[in-house]
Design a protein that fits this description.
The structure is a homotetramer.
Chain A (H helix, E strand, L loop, with lengths): L7 E7 L17 H15 L4 H7 L1 E2 L2 E8 L9 E9 L4 E9 L5 E9 L2 E2 L11 H7 L4
């Protein structure tokens, strides 16, 4: 989050549920990708490029890399904030995430995900962001 | 399980994982449908009508009804057996399930699921089992 | 929903995510219990008997029965409303649910769940609702 | 997998299910941690330090770091092999993973997870592996 310059940044609130938590009473580490998804979806909708727009545009954006650093557990009942920053967009999309306790603002988790464009007709991976996404991002650059 | 005559019956073993369990240390009730799926998949493959064969046949079989009676919790570390019985097939598919402790054979859960055929071209629900399934079931009737 | 008299009733909105959906492009039937949980949690918090209050009260309320009727699929991108009704409370808790399309109000799913009180010290199931829950419900009866 | 010397290495087979897959017909990227868990559990049981033994030993081993590189999608119906290698153990546990197609042996995913010991009485993180784990690993060093 520190080293990458963010082009866009936004926060969404979430509330981990009972079913997200494991026998230790904390969110199971493998359930965090669902929280990242909430942040990413909010970001993509902000630039008017949510799943429906993506699909219409003829590109899919599969994840090729995801990483998470779990500094503090998320306990059952704790409300969280997921800050999402778009930090790369020219050749691929890279999002950085910070999950924080909603009340104390203490940082609990840092994470990132990297996505590449795939042309849905040819099933070929693109090495450059397609024009449609550049256009969507223009107002924010 | 008692009132319905089973056309076919089989058991699969499963082992609930840490991520299946909730802060009470037992499998979260909403994760049981994954166990039923394991039993149903085994049954459909036994009659050579697994997902790939279904898809080729031009029909999907969405669940229209599912019910579960949780008599005993499934604790983390407990190994289980899922017995699946096919009890209806002429107009729809109905499966009955019993989940038992693998060692003691004590019954933990009873469940059922009901599925109807949908013609994937017309997206119409069928009120009778299509010939392809009758043919698959013939050796077992 | 029709036959049971509701003591309490409320609606929450939800938005199924990409990860809730299966290769048919609809919410996988086994993911619906998560939606029911959202409605139930909202209801229990309304009567000031959420998970924290439950735990303090010394009782757990495991699910003993759950049933779902899937009338229409929930498609990816569809926003939904989960109406929860408390229809029994004297000996056990019974909730009825209706999931509807948020825009059209068309009913998609009907469901119910039944819960019994377990004394967390003795691990005994109770055949009558403990006084604490009666007290919480009093303002609504 | 290449740079770290593995102390222990083993493979487990798995079969992604319908409910693991998303509307693109591939395993949703956020469901992979469940596969890593299968490999890790097998490894820890091999050294007789599964969840029950951990719990008895008085330590928990939360994940502090997890990373995944998705080279190829895992398609519905594809059977996979999860190779798990224990590559660090002196101060923390580090596992490397490779997910491969079971038939072709083509590598689909590389991943890692890092775990630290937490003393369950004091809730303090340990900077060195506790003696119990050293003893469990001794036969393999």
């Amino acid at each position: 989050m520190r080293t990458d310059r963010a082009i866009l940044r936004l926060s969404v609130e979430a509330r981990p549920q009972f079913y997200d938590c494991d026998p230790m009473g904390v969110v199971w580490h493998g359930n965090y990708p669902r929280f990242l998804e909430l942040g990413r979806v909010a970001m993509l909708e902000k630039i008017d490029y949510g799943y429906a727009a993506m699909s219409e545009s003829g590109y899919a954006w599969p994840v090729v890399d995801m990483g998470l650093k779990y500094a503090q557990p998320i306990r059952f009942g704790q409300k969280i904030e997921i800050e999402t920053a778009l930090v790369e967009w020219e050749n691929r999309l890279k999002f950085n995430f910070e999950i924080r306790d909603l009340e104390t603002r203490r940082r609990l988790t840092r994470a990132h995900s990297v996505h590449v464009a795939v042309d849905m007709k040819t099933e070929q991976m693109l090495w450059e962001t397609p024009p449609i996404l550049r256009k969507k991002l223009e107002p924010f650059l």
